[in-house]
Amino acid sequence: MKAADIFEFYRRLAETNPDPQTELAYGNDYQLLVAVVLSAQSTDVGVNKATRRLFESVETPQQMIDLGEDGLKQHIRTIGLFNSKAKNVIALSELLVRDHGGEVPADRDLLEALPGVGRKTANVVMNTAFGAETFAVDTHIFRVGNRTGLARGKTPLAVEKQLDRKTPGPFRLGAHHWLILHGRYVCKARTPECWRCCVADLCKFKPKSAAPGTKPVSRG
Questions:
Q1: Residue 220 pLDDT > 50, yes or no?
Q2: Alpha helix (H) ranges present in 39-138?
Q3: Is residue 160 situated within a structural domain?
Q4: Which residue, 118, 161, 115, 127, is CA-closest to 22?
Q5: Do residue 43 and residue 81 come from a single domain?
Q6: Residues 121-147: tens digit of each pLDDT
Q7: What φ, ψ does residue 76 adopt, rounded to 5°?
Q8: What is the rounded CA–CA span in Å between residue 75 and residue 52?
């Protein structure tokens, strides 16, 4: 995709959603970190249901430690892999208290050193909590990047590097949110809804899927 097309791609996404936000519910940086860790291989909707009551009483790492692993499991048992996630959340909370004064560090390397925190999670926290121009590549963004031609790569890291290199300045902060929301609601995994996509003419995917009851088109 040419530079002018990439700029227009983002411009249209920004026009349809001027202030993109994460769909995870949280009240502070620590709760955001926990929510993102819990969201691995789970939906934001499912995580929000599980954390609604949890976050009413747990706002700090120390409060999470006091709740304990078994207590945490009672809140998140509806989330996939809840046993390992509970263990990681307690462990990362202990490290935050021990090494960071109970605060979430605004540093990607330090975040990745926490149990259960990979590069994608660290990028989300850096972007959402600290306003860093990071590109957290999940399954949605990986698909959108490759399908549209915006940022192709065989691995999430390769796609991330492409996005970092190609995304124009005005759109770097919001790019992660625009792309994940576009993948979640329009450029869906099984059948992308090209007929209502604002960037369909810029996208390299062919043939374009058509609205139900009509034939697909190959141009674009």
A1: no
A2: 44-57, 61-76, 82-100, 108-112, 119-130
A3: yes
A4: 127
A5: yes
A6: 999 999 999 999 999 999 999 999 999
A7: -115, 15
A8: 9
A 10 A CB-CB count for 37 gives 21
Q: Are residues 97 and 33 in the same domain?
A: yes
Residues 111, 182: one domain?
no
Residue 193's identity, in one-letter code, is: E
For residues 57 and 117, membership in a common domain is answered with yes
Residue 212 belongs to some domain of the structure: no
Q: Which of the residues are catalytic?
A: 120, 138
CB burial of residue 2 (10 Å; 0-12, 13-18, 19+):
exposed
| Structural domain boundaries enclosing 141 | 3-19+136-202
44 and 101 assigned to the same domain: yes
Q: What total of structural domains would you count in the chain?
A: 2
Q: Are 93 and 86 in contact (CB under 8 A)?
A: no
Give the domain-ending residue among 88, 114, 130: 130
Q: Give the type of residue at 203.
A: C
Longest dimension (CA), the chain: 60
213 falls in which pLDDT band (50, 70, 90)? low
- pLDDT tens column, 60-95: 999 999 999 999 999 999 998 889 999 999 999 999
